[in-house]
Amino acid sequence: MPPTQDASSATVASTSPPNAYGCLLPSAGLHALGLLLALSPLHWTVVGYLLVLVGAVLLAITCGLGRLPADSPERPRALRAANHHVVYGLVATAATVVVGVADTGSTAIWMGYLCLVPVGTGLYTRAQLIGRDRVLPAAVANVLVVAVPVLCVVGAPFAHGTGRSPAIALLLMIAGVGLLGVSLLCVTSRALVPGAVLLFLVAALTLNNFTSGLQAWLNVAGQSQDCRLLDTTTFRPRAASPDAVHHYQCGERRVDYEQASGVTPISDAKLVVDRTGITDRALPGEETPGWRGVLWLVNLGAIVAALGAVVLLGRNRQRNAAQPQT
Fold this sequence. Notes:
- This protein is of the alpha+beta class.
- Among the domains are: 17-130, no CATH class; 215-289, CATH 2.40.50.
- 62% of the residues lie in helices and 11% in strands.
- The chain is built from ten helices and five strands; from the N terminus they run αααααααααβββββα.
- A hairpin with a 2-residue loop joins strand 2 and strand 3 (253-259).
- Helix 4 (75-102) packs antiparallel against helix 5 (107-130), helix 5 (107-130) packs parallel to helix 7 (165-187) and helix 9 (213-221) crosses helix 10 (290-322).
- It is flat.
């Protein structure tokens, strides 16, 4: 007679947990291979995009590891795999930023957004396994709560910078806002309102950087110069683009002044230019700071106030946690 299989062993085999690294390695491997093909000198962009997209989808599916039973022997491996998700995503995003600085194309920037997927899946899995208030180490969360608003403030001039700097600044600020949201869950887990207010204000500043950050920056780092009109480039009217860009020669520098079409540019004008050279955009003196610059400064002041409330709340929480329970 053929040997009969024990019913209990068959049940265990059918309900055995998935191997965490067996799920991670193929998905991360496809993602990394697609990234390499798209950003390397081969420039296999289409194949690279397809592999990165497939890898990102498979990485998102691995979030199911967060639902492993509490007594599952695979939970420690799943937690380590989630950590590797985060590390790989951060390294890959940094690589796309480095390539994006040197490359004139947009492939690296779009790949950077897809590289944020492993970071998100890793943090989500960690939150499922160990709790959302412990998804990041306390020291890391405290640093990010302060560093991300500072990053968004510093991003104001780069949002109007030369080359690929506006696209890179947007990528970094979006990633920062996401990490700030996760950090605030750790710092203000029992009082979400102050954290939500700070997150909203930082997200609003990210948008304001592209609409009014130039006015605020030139109010701080600008200098007035006599400029001579060279020529004008006219664009098809769009919501996100100016109708015309006037090119001026200001001393040894060439700067651009964006203006609506139909407005006659002044041949000889006195413009405020960036003395640091971060941006090649210029504005007339009456527009610095202007009402847009004032709006940006008000947004900054609100962030400082909200950040102070969150920091005090976090300190009180740590102090209460350190007190012995009676």
